[in-house]
Amino acid sequence: MEEEYEDFMNHMNEKKRTIDIALLKQTLKRGNSMPLNVEQFIELFGKIRDDDFEDLTYQFISVINGIEDDEWTHILGMENPSEYQKDEMKAWIVDGWGEDWIKEILMYNQEKEEYENCARIFECLEHYSNLENFVNTNVLK
C-alpha cells in the first residue's frame, strides 16, 4: 500500500513538473527573460534534464533568430534596425537570461557536439562582454 502511494506521489510530482516547465517555456517562447537562475531552477524542478537543455537551447536560439529576421525588432517598433542595434539586442538577451544560464546551455551544447548552437550562443556572450562599449558608444553618438 505504501509503495502504491509513493508511486502515485512520484507520478503526481512528475505531472506538476511537466506543467510548470511548460509554463516556463511558454514564457520564454514569447521572448521574455529567464525568470529563474540555475540554482532556483534546480531547487524547483530538480536536476536539469537533457530535454530541458534542448528546449532551453531552442528557445534561446529562436530569440536570436527573431532578432536577425527582424521579427523582434519589428515588434519593438524598430524599422530597418542596423547591425549595431541587432548586436546590442543580442547582448541584452544574455543580460535577460543571465550569464549562468547561457554558460550552462553553452556547455551542454558543447558536450553534445552541437557546434552550430555553440557558435550562436558564444556570439551573444561576446556581444554581452562588449555591452559597456555599446552603452558608451551610444552615448557618444
Task: Describe this structure as you would to a colleague.
By secondary structure, this protein is mainly alpha-helical. The chain has one domain (2-140). Helix content is 80%, strand content 0%. The longest helix is centred in the N-terminal third of the chain and has 28 residues, at 2-29. The N and C termini lie far apart (72 Å). Mean pLDDT is 82; it is low at 134-141.
Could you estimate the helical fraction of the residues in percent? over 70%
The number of domains: 1
Which percent range describes the beta-strand content? under 5%
Low-confidence stretches: 134-141
Shape: elongated
- Our Rg estimate from Cα atoms comes to 18 Å
Helix and strand run:
HHHHHHHH
Count the beta strands. 0
Alpha-beta content class: mainly alpha
Task: List key phrases describing it.
141 residues, mainly alpha, 0% strand, disordered C terminus
Quick synopsis:
By secondary structure, the protein is mainly alpha-helical. The chain has one domain. It has helices spanning 2-29, 38-45, 50-68, 71-75, 83-97, 99-111, 115-129, 131-140.
SSE map:
Elements: H1 2-29, H2 38-45, H3 50-68, H4 71-75, H5 83-97, H6 99-111, H7 115-129, H8 131-140
